[in-house]
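Work Package 4 report. The design task specified in the project plan requires that, given a folded chain encoded as structure tokens, an amino acid be chosen for each position. We show below one input record used in the internal validation round.
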């Protein structure tokens, strides 16, 4: 599956998806995640935005809803994108 970073961002802002990707160590992971502003916790940046490195441009940071934490993956490692259909309200809560 070849999606651009912009396509992934647009999809994840609109909905929550199970994103399947290959981790750097070769392990395959499926992560329920989103960038939907109604789900992602509010964040106030304390440091100025800097120019992204090539590595940072190749990765996407997302809110992982089963861990209640920010996680990232390489855009080129995504192998599947499937709409997340579980009830988010019943996900276990993790202190952040």
């Amino acid at each position: 599956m070849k999606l651009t970073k912009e396509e992934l961002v647009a999809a994840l802002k609109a909905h929550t998806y199970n994103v399947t990707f290959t981790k750097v160590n070769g392990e395959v992971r499926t992560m329920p995640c989103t960038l939907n502003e109604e789900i992602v916790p509010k964040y106030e940046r304390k440091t100025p935005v800097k120019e992204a490195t090539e590595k940072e441009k190749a990765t996407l940071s997302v809110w992982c809803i089963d861990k209640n934490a920010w996680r990232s993956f390489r855009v080129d490692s995504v192998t599947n994108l499937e709409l997340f259909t579980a009830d988010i309200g019943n996900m276990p809560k993790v202190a952040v």
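The helical segments are 5-14, 54-57. Validation will be extended to a larger panel in the next phase.
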